[in-house]
């Protein structure tokens, strides 16, 4: 009898919208948010001045410690159509105000780039730790052979952190359908629902607000099963391709 809840979810009007938004935001976040910490770590690693390096690290790490509520509040302030810095700049250039937070088309971009800003510094720590283990003699030998800085980054630094990149990519793919509920819920409103409604917010509406506990549990279980399948599949592919995997 429990399968009726899964059937109801698959046949519902919201099913494809939820899948499209959840998968769309996740892929967008993976495409933008995953390589940025790698590039940041590689750039910080090339900085010679310790003081400048610590300053950059402090500035990029700091947003991670802001609460989600504070970050969303900052987003609303900066993107306000009346007093937001971005809209003031657009108006100074002769453009009209843009209602970013009520436009479903802007939701994914705002969510992803604000998340990149908040997490890129913290996510780069693992890559910096891996880069710290690179043998300096490899760089010295490469310099003797006439390798440029970019060539040394490509042929020495990147291969050294490749196992770390693969493991984190596997973990990211395993949580593809588990977007942060709190931030999306705080940014969500009736006007941007077409682009912001994801599985986690639907589970909240149907389970907590609608008191449909069995149905919302079935939707949540579907979400978990998809994540598990993605994790196992990507792990198997990574093990065959690079011999690096979680198990």
Q: Could you give me the name of the CATH homologous superfamily?
A: MetI-like
Helix content: over 70%
Describe the sheet with the most strands. none
Contiguous helical run count: 13
The ordered string of helix (H) and strand (E) elements is: HHHHHHHHHHHHH
Distance between the termini: 36 Å
Strand content: under 5%
CATH topology descriptor: MetI-like fold
- Gyration radius, in Å: 22 Å
Indicate the mean pLDDT.
91
CATH-defined architecture? Orthogonal Bundle
**What is the CATH class designation?**
Mainly Alpha
| Strand count | 0
Structural class category: mainly alpha
Features:
247 residues, mainly alpha, MetI-like fold, 13 helices
Describe the structure.
α1 (3-11) crosses α13 (213-242), α2 (15-33) packs parallel to α7 (104-131) and α4 packs antiparallel against α7 (104-131). This protein is 75% helix and 0% strand. It is flat, with a radius of gyration of 22 Å. It has a single domain (3-242), classed as MetI-like fold, CATH 1.10.3720. The protein is mainly alpha-helical.
Concise synopsis of the structure shown:
This protein has 247 residues and is mainly α. 75% of the residues lie in helices and 0% in strands.
């Amino acid at each position: 009898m429990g399968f009726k809840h899964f059937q109801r979810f698959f046949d519902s009007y919201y099913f494809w919208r939820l899948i499209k938004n959840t998968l769309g935001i996740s892929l967008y976040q993976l495409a933008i948010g995953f390589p940025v910490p790698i590039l940041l770590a590689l750039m910080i690693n090339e900085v010679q001045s310790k003081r400048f390096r610590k300053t950059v690290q402090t500035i990029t790490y700091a947003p991670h410690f802001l609460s989600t509520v504070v970050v969303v509040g900052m987003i609303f302030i900066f993107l306000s159509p009346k007093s937001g810095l971005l809209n003031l700049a657009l108006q100074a250039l002769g453009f009209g105000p843009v209602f970013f937070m009520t436009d479903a088309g802007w939701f994914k971009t705002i969510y992803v780039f604000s998340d990149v800003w908040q997490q890129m510094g913290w996510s780069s720590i693992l890559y910096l730790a891996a880069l710290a283990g690179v043998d300096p003699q490899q760089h010295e030998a490469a310099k003797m052979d006439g390798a440029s800085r970019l060539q040394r980054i490509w042929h020495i630094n990147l291969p050294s952190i490749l196992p770390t990149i693969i493991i984190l990519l596997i973990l990211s793919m395993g949580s593809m359908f588990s977007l942060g509920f709190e931030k999306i819920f705080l940014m969500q409103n009736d006007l941007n629902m077409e682009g912001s409604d994801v599985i986690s917010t639907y589970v909240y509406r149907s389970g907590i607000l609608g008191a449909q506990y069995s149905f919302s549990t079935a939707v949540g279980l579907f979400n978990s099963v998809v994540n598990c399948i993605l994790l196992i599949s990507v792990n198997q592919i990574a093990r065959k391709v690079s011999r690096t995997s979680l198990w």
